[in-house]
Amino acid sequence: MDENLPPESAALLRNNGHNALTVWDQGLQGHSDTRIISVCQDEQRTLITLDLDFADIRAYPPDHYAGIIVMRLSSQSRSHVLRIVQNLLPVLAKEPLKGRLWIVDDAAVRIHGEGKELLTEVSP
């Protein structure tokens, strides 16, 4: 989880069976996007971030990574981000991440990869 997300979001994922670490857990706070995505790639971890730069498939081709989730939210408040992460849990349970770019907004997830695009709702 990128440093722009509340640390409680990683705890929420861990409490639901995911092996989630934050940039802070890894000692990577303040490091470049390139360094962070490189560590994710080396460790086969999905990056979850609010940083829209990671949505650029020319710079970060989804098939090179274990997954990238970019959250494009109307509010980046702690409570709103945690609510969206909570709503995302059922999608995480049924959709593969590897080689895919997920764009998450307030109501839906657009999943890009493997030559197709999938739209699924995340609102309860």
Summarize the structure in words:
The chain starts with 6 loop residues before the first helix and ends with a strand. It contains three helices and five strands; from the N terminus they run ααββαβββ. The protein has a five-stranded mixed β-sheet, sandwiched between helices. It has one domain (7-121). The longest helix is centred in the last third of the chain and has 17 residues, at 78-94. The chain has helices spanning 7-14, 33-43, 78-94, and strands spanning 47-49, 68-71, 101-104, 108-113, 116-121. It has 124 residues and is of the alpha/beta class. Strand 3 (101-104) and strand 4 form a beta hairpin.
Separation of the first and last Cα atoms: 23 Å
Strand content: 15-25%
Oligomer: single chain
Q: Helix and strand succession?
A: HHEEHEEE
Strand arrangement in the largest pleated sheet:
1-2-3-4-5
The major pleated sheet works out as: 5 strands, mixed
Overall shape: it is globular
Q: What share of residues is helical?
A: 25-40%
Low-confidence stretches: none
Number of helices: 3
Tell me the number of structural domains. 1
| Mean residue pLDDT | 93
Category from helices, strands and their pairing:
alpha/beta
Annotation, overall tally of beta strands: 5
As a whole number of angstroms, the C-alpha radius of gyration is: 13 Å
